[in-house]
Structure formats: structure tokens, C-alpha cells
Design goal:
The structure is a single chain. With about 350 residues, the protein is α+β, with helices and mostly antiparallel strands. The protein folds into two domains: about 5-225, Orthogonal Bundle (Endonuclease III, domain 1), CATH 1.10.340.30; about 235-340, Alpha-Beta Complex (Nucleoside Triphosphate Pyrophosphohydrolase), CATH 3.90.79.10. It has helices spanning about 5-20, 30, 40-50, 55-65, 70-75, 80-85, 90-110, 115-120, 130-140, 150-155, 170-175, 185-200, 215-220, 330-340, and strands at about 235-245, 250-255, 265, 290-300, 305-310, 320. Strands 1, 2, 3, 4, 5 and 6 form a six-stranded mixed sheet that branches. Helix 3 packs across helix 4 (about 55-65). The mean pLDDT is about 95. The structure holds iron/sulfur cluster. Iron/sulfur cluster (SF4) binds near residues 156, 206, 209, 211 and 223.
Length: about 350
């Protein structure tokens, strides 16, 4: 049922005809014409598009390449500028690592972005998936690219029964049995495309799938049973207060400490975030705080509920005042909007 050569041939044929055209992607016909992928641009696209949609990530990718055309430009940039350009993409540790990684490439690799998997894995913020992807796309290294999309496709094709995350390593090994030295970059991108467009989580369009005849889950009409996952515990909730000190449309902001969630980002003061609703004991100074309701924001591992309080202060108070929240992480944009609402 699983003839690897036939599966690869079917997938690559499908990719040649119907794979996605993405701004950073070198399509097979362009590659044949001599276009070479830029590892810096591929790296940016991979880091930015994790955990978000391509439509959301693409404007950021364009803006970064315009502001920092090379990895050395990014390394030389002020980190605060990089962080504020990242605002809205979430997962801010990634932005800090992005800047750090650019510095390492500048200082330890003569400003030339590495393209082999082993070296890529030594760089800050580059994990197995990103290293495998860059190496396959940019250096035609026969790496095993596995992301959530690939896990879904492979687990369905083989009706892989071990629940994730326990079965992740074995599923990865299974995926590796399909890797060959022939067109590894196109193969990896094809597999990711298949998962992103056809083999979708809830409604796979198996009729259009190049692996339909190989797919065990499809033959059993059990496509959505896979990947089997251990039942998730409900998302924990954390609570806190957020304080908006405002003067007309301007808000006083501060830089958060480097460590922890949203480390190094600009925000408004908050209390610590705890497992139970909090009180005012950590409020900055004593003011006439006006309650502005609650905002909710979902992070990867928890949901945050912040009770927002606002107070009018004099514009002469020293600090950083902003009237444009576009440089703030999304959670603080929500807080400021609530704090400024009448
Ligand atoms: S046949 Fe359906 S379930 Fe199987 S890999 Fe293709 S789209 Fe996914």
C-alpha cells in the first residue's frame, strides 16, 4: 500500500502543478531557471509564520526585508526597533532570538546565513523543524521536515495509532522513511502544502489528494481520527490587573523586564498574573482608578484575564507617552483600547 517511490512521485507531481506560490518560495520552474532561495528570507518566513496564518505573517515578512535587507542589517538594528516591528506577531521570545541569531550569524559566520542542518541547529531560536526546512530548501539537504501539518498527513496516511505527544518521535521516524535525496526541498514544501491546503484538520478534501490511494485513514473513512491525541486538559486561566495612566489620548508605557512572557516588550503596568482573581495591592501609586472592564487574551498555554483600570494624570509626568499602540503586543493594545474607552 505504501510504495515510497510512487508516493513521492505523486506528491511532487501535485506540487509541480498545484503547490502554493508564496512570496518567499522559489517554485520548481523558477529553480530550474536558476533562481536560488535566500536562506535569510526563508528563515524569516519560517520564524514569522509559526503559530499564525501566512496572510498575517506576510506583511511582517515584507516589512522586515525592506527595513533589513540582509541578516547583517538585522543584526545591526536596534533591538527595540526590531521588537516593535514584531508587535502583533506574538511569541516575543522569538523576536528576541531573531535578533540574537542575526548577531551570531554576523559575528561567527561572516554574515553568511548557514544552510546546513547541523550548523543551523546551533543558532539561537532555530529548532529541528526550522533547521530541516532551511537546509532542504536552500541546500537540497535530505532532511526530515516535520511540522503540525506533516504530522497530520503522515499519521493519516499510515493510520498511526500512538497518541501524541507520546508518539511524536515514532511518527517523525516514520516520516523520515519517505525522505530521499531527490528534490528534498520541493518534497518537504509539497508535504507542508498538502497538510495546509488539502489534508486540513477538520475537512480534508481527500478527493483532490495525491495520496488518496495510499492513505489508510481514507480507506477506512477515518481521516479525522488522526493524529490521535491525548485528551487536552482545559486551558488554565490566569488573572491580573492592568493599569492605564492616560492624558487625553496618550498613555504612559514602560518596557517590561527581559525575562518572562512579553519580556523586553513595551506595555502598561500590570500586577503579577496569578491563578486567582487579584486585588489592587500592586496598583502603581494610589490613584482614583476607574474600572474599565475585563479583557481576555489567549496565549499558548493559558488564557489571561486582565481587569483594566484607568486614571487621568498630568501630561507633565515623566515617562514614555504614546498615542499609537501599533508597537505594543496585542494584549496591551486590547488593554489600552479598554482603558481609553469612555
Ligand atoms: S487522503 Fe485525505 S486524509 Fe489521507 S492524506 Fe489525503 S487528504 Fe489527508
Amino acid at each position: 500500500m505504501h510504495n515510497v517511490s510512487d508516493m513521492r512521485a505523486a506528491l511532487l507531481r501535485w506540487y509541480d502543478e498545484q503547490g502554493r506560490t508564496l512570496p518567499w518560495r522559489v517554485r520548481p520552474e523558477d529553480r530550474a531557471a536558476g533562481v536560488v532561495p535566500d536562506p535569510y528570507a526563508i528563515w524569516l518566513s519560517e520564524v514569522m509564520s509559526q503559530q499564525t496564518t501566512l496572510a498575517h505573517a506576510t506583511p511582517y515578512w515584507r516589512a522586515f526585508l525592506e527595513a533589513f535587507p540582509s541578516v547583517v542589517d538585522l543584526a545591526d538594528a536596534n533591538r527595540d526597533v526590531v521588537l516593535s516591528m514584531w508587535a502583533g506577531l506574538g511569541y516575543y521570545a522569538r523576536a528576541r532570538n531573531l535578533h540574537k541569531c542575526a548577531g551570531v550569524v554576523r559575528d561567527d559566520h561572516l554574515g553568511i546565513f548557514p544552510t546546513d542542518e547541523k550548523t543551523l541547529l546551533t543558532l539561537p531560536g532555530i529548532g529541528p523543524y526550522t533547521a530541516a526546512t532551511i537546509a532542504a530548501i536552500c541546500a537540497d539537504e535530505a532532511t526530515n521536515i516535520v511540522d503540525g501539518n506533516v504530522e497530520r498527513v503522515i499519521s493519516r496516511t499510515y493510520a498511526f495509532e500512538t497518541p501524541l505527544p507520546k508518539g511524536r518521535k515514532a511518527l517523525r521516524d516514520l516520516s523520515g522513511t519517505l525522505v530521499r535525496a531527490d528534490r528534498p526541498g520541493d518534497y518537504g514544501q509539497a508535504l507542508m502544502d498538502l497538510g495546509a491546503t488539502i489534508c486540513s484538520p477538520k475537512n480534508p478534501t481527500c478527493l483532490l489528494c495525491p495520496w488518496r490511494e495510499f492513505c489508510v485513514a481514507h480507506s477506512q473513512s477515518e481521516e479525522t481520527k488522526y493524529p490521535v491525541k491525548v485528551k487536552k486538559k482545559p486551558t488554565p486561566i490566569r488573572y491580573g490587573h492592568a493599569y492605564v495612566l492616560r492624558c487625553e489620548d496618550k498613555v504612559l508605557v514602560e518596557r517590561r523586564p527581559d525575562s518572562g512572557l512579553l519580556g523586553g516588550m513595551i506595555g502598561v503596568p500590570t500586577t503579577d498574573w496569578g491563578d486567582a482573581p487579584t486585588d489592587h495591592s500592586q496598583a502603581p501609586l494610589h490613584r482614583n482608578w476607574e474600572s474599565k472592564g475585563q479583557i481576555r487574551h489567549v496565549f499558548t498555554h493559558f488564557e489571561l484575564r486582565l481587569d483594566v483600570f484607568a486614571a487621568e494624570i498630568e501630561a507633565s509626568v515623566e515617562g514614555v507617552w504614546v498615542d499609537d499602540t501599533s508597537g505594543l503586543p496585542t494584549v496591551f493594545t486590547k488593554v489600552v483600547e479598554a482603558g481609553l474607552a469612555d
